[in-house]
Amino acid sequence: MADLVLEKLSKSFGTVEVIPSLDLAINDGEFVVFVGPSGCGKSTLLRLIAGLEEASSGDIRIAGQSVVSVPAADRGVAMVFQSYALYPHMTVRQNLSFGLENIRMPKDEIARRVSAAAKMLQIEEYLERRPKELSGGQRQRVAIGRAITRDPKIFLFDEPLSNLDAELRVLMRVEITKLHERLGNTMIYVTHDQIEAMTMADKIVVLRKGVIEQVGAPLELYNRPCNTFVAGFIGSPRMNFVDGAISEVTDSTLTFQSPHLPALTLTTRPDSVRAGMQATLGIRPEHFALSSEKNGWPLKVSVAEQHGANSYLHCTMPNETPILIHEAGQSGVSRGDVLHAEPRQWHLFDAEGKRLAVD
Questions:
Q1: pTM score, two decimals?
Q2: Over the chain, what is the mean pLDDT?
Q3: What are the residue ranges spanned by the domains of the chain?
Q4: In this predicted model, what pLDDT tens digit does every residue of 159-187 receive, in sequence order?
Q5: Residue 152 CB: number of other CB atoms within 10 A?
Q6: Which of 2, 68, 99, 108 has the fewest other C-beta atoms within 10 Å?
Q7: Which residues does residue 311 pair with via DSSP β-bridges, in sequence order?
Q8: Which one, of 257, 339, 242, 355, lies nearest residue 298 by Cα?
Q9: pLDDT tens digits for 101-150?
Q10: 186: closest CA among 146, 221, 153?
Q11: 219 falls in which pLDDT band (50, 70, 90)?
């Protein structure tokens, strides 16, 4: 096990700068998830840590030792890929032991490690099968098992579940989380799926264009996103945003005004908020209070999705702003209905998208 420090790490491909300059510290034993949209640099960052890409500048330290010039095979990390990367002509046992045989590990130690990994991942009965005889979930277990047999300081996962169907992804999320609890190793996991990030991580690193937007525990990012990008990316369904301005501020309230909408008076203790400033109000779909008394904003329902245990109401405001509302249970609302809603909880951002300090 080991901690990891990235210091002023950058990567360019020719004239294209993928990671400008990045600093990050990951503690020993943490499960950290890199999350962000496609092209944000998360997989490149993982490959830099693994030694599969050469850094343009900066340093990578594992357990206090710089590895930026150390070959991938000697860094003490093991990587699990999206494509499994299993040898099709080899049995599961041979796939698990191949890397250890290459470094001339004693046969009895190889057998011990393969047996322990197979037992841990419940693939003992598949040891003599070839990859083509396995399901997607079983193949991914073998790929993880191959990483375990190397006994690495750090596990690296590059979107390992993206090729699996939805139900199997849920099961494998649980299995990987349990594996981390059993092993206690530092694990770094890359995904574009923020549900995976929220449910698996001790700490989430949100990336955009190679820059870290925010680092924190899942609920910290959910409850206090630092900007509209993080607010819109963390949470499913995504947060609603309404552009407007602060028209009035008192010691305990602020009034938010958006074109063609009734003004909303929100109870709060403004800190960095002043009257006249442009602002964006963020409301998560589950944080609306619906009213039959015509309080709040009028919303016309365009689509009412009934999922059984949950309902999702796709609405439009008079100023054409789209709003999604999540209701627990089964809703009696239909397409064309007009609702009135006020935010029960909300977030406020300035004209540049940065979080405004309000209590």
A1: 0.91
A2: 92
A3: 4-233, 240-350
A4: 988 888 888 888 889 989 998 998 899 99
A5: 20
A6: 108
A7: 306, 327
A8: 339
A9: 888 889 999 999 999 999 988 899 999 999 999 988 899 889 999 999 98
A10: 153
A11: very high
- Which CATH number is 240-350 given? 2.40.50.140
Please state the three-class secondary structure of 118-163 as a single string. HHHCCCHHHCCCCHHHCCHHHHHHHHHHHHHHCCCCEEEEECCCCC
| Residue 199 structure tokens | 């449910």
Is the CA virtual torsion 2, 204, 350, 246 positive or negative?
Answer: negative
Q: Average pLDDT of 30-46?
A: 94
CATH value of 4-233 in 3.40.50.300, 3.60.40.10, 3.40.630.10, 3.30.450.40: 3.40.50.300
On the 0-12 / 13-18 / 19+ scale of CB atoms within 10 A, 88 is exposed
Give residue 359's pLDDT: 64
Q: Does position 281 have pLDDT exceeding 90, yes or no? A: yes
* Buried residues in 41-80 as b, exposed as e (16+ CB within 10 A): bbbbbbbbbbbebebbebebbbeeeebbeeeeeebbbbbb
- Tell me which residue has tokens 């995976």: 196
Q: Which residues contact 177 (CB under 8 A, 6 or more apart)?
A: 31, 199, 200
3-state helix, strand, coil in the chain (%, to 5): 25, 35, 35
Q: Which amino acid is at 204?
A: I
* 345 contacts: CB under 8 Å, gap ≥ 6: 283, 284, 287
DSSP element (H, E) containing 266: strand 264-267
